[in-house]
């Protein structure tokens, strides 16, 4: 595997994620917090985000299936998801949560269900993109190279 | 806000025995971080460690009070050796909000001197004002960045160091007499 080619691929891929707003500057901030003593920091935080998000998406699905929907509860979950996505720089997920919260406030079931679908979509998209990014990073490290900034 | 901070740190410096200054100087700032979000706790912990702080991260206002030994229902859990120099708390938390935690800390004679910083994803002026009025040292809008944490720790440790130096100056004069 051509190391230089891999590194080039990573830079281009990562740039595209920012360009398409999957990631924002908060993700860059997280990368800056990583060093030789904490080489897995970003992967660890993102893994926590994955776990947390999937839990919240499950909770949201359940909450919206209820006969009598507790919109405060739904909103609380969306608020959490908005917060954690913001903290890791998952901009599109964060933005989709904003619309969701508006529908919660209006107690609009259809709106909420549509938003849940959208949020779930955005989440799985960014998840697969981040996993692809981490895979590229691993390939570079395994080839003895360093990850370009 | 700045005046309050300076007074707080000066007062603490005067309480320390004059000949123990070198020990206190090398002590890290111990921060109690409060946030119900696991992701945010992980991030704030790293931000604080990078700024050379000792960190205790808890997931609720209730646990924060327990850690401080302020919870009426539970005894202090044996951490009373570790003094808390700063509390940094999320605003929106289930159960006790960061605002309620702030109030409880400021109402306590033992802990009201500890600076409290509030973090919130919502940049609402009324909320910020309310927190500052209740005695919060500062307010950070999430997502929290390294520059936010550095600003707060720098400001705190500068005041502390200045207080210490003033104290040392007083001691030197006493020795010569």
Automatic annotation (TrEMBL), chain A:
<dbReference type="InterPro" id="IPR008207">
    <property type="entry name" value="Sig_transdc_His_kin_Hpt_dom"/>
</dbReference>
<dbReference type="Pfam" id="PF01627">
    <property type="entry name" value="Hpt"/>
</dbReference>
<feature type="modified residue" description="Phosphohistidine">
    <location>
        <position position="79"/>
    </location>
</feature>
<protein>
    <recommendedName>
        <fullName>Histidine-containing phosphotransfer protein</fullName>
    </recommendedName>
</protein>
<keyword id="KW-0597">Phosphoprotein</keyword>
<dbReference type="InterPro" id="IPR045871">
    <property type="entry name" value="AHP1-5/YPD1"/>
</dbReference>
<feature type="domain" description="HPt">
    <location>
        <begin position="38"/>
        <end position="133"/>
    </location>
</feature>
<comment type="function">
    <text>Functions as a two-component phosphorelay mediators between cytokinin sensor histidine kinases and response regulators (B-type ARRs). Plays an important role in propagating cytokinin signal transduction.</text>
</comment>
<dbReference type="InterPro" id="IPR036641">
    <property type="entry name" value="HPT_dom_sf"/>
</dbReference>
<keyword id="KW-0932">Cytokinin signaling pathway</keyword>
<keyword id="KW-0902">Two-component regulatory system</keyword>
Automatic annotation (TrEMBL), chain B:
<dbReference type="InterPro" id="IPR001789">
    <property type="entry name" value="Sig_transdc_resp-reg_receiver"/>
</dbReference>
<feature type="domain" description="Response regulatory">
    <location>
        <begin position="30"/>
        <end position="157"/>
    </location>
</feature>
<dbReference type="InterPro" id="IPR045279">
    <property type="entry name" value="ARR-like"/>
</dbReference>
<protein>
    <recommendedName>
        <fullName>Response regulatory domain-containing protein</fullName>
    </recommendedName>
</protein>
<keyword id="KW-0597">Phosphoprotein</keyword>
<keyword id="KW-0902">Two-component regulatory system</keyword>
<keyword id="KW-0805">Transcription regulation</keyword>
<keyword id="KW-0804">Transcription</keyword>
<keyword id="KW-0539">Nucleus</keyword>
<dbReference type="Pfam" id="PF00072">
    <property type="entry name" value="Response_reg"/>
</dbReference>
<feature type="modified residue" description="4-aspartylphosphate">
    <location>
        <position position="90"/>
    </location>
</feature>
<dbReference type="InterPro" id="IPR011006">
    <property type="entry name" value="CheY-like_superfamily"/>
</dbReference>
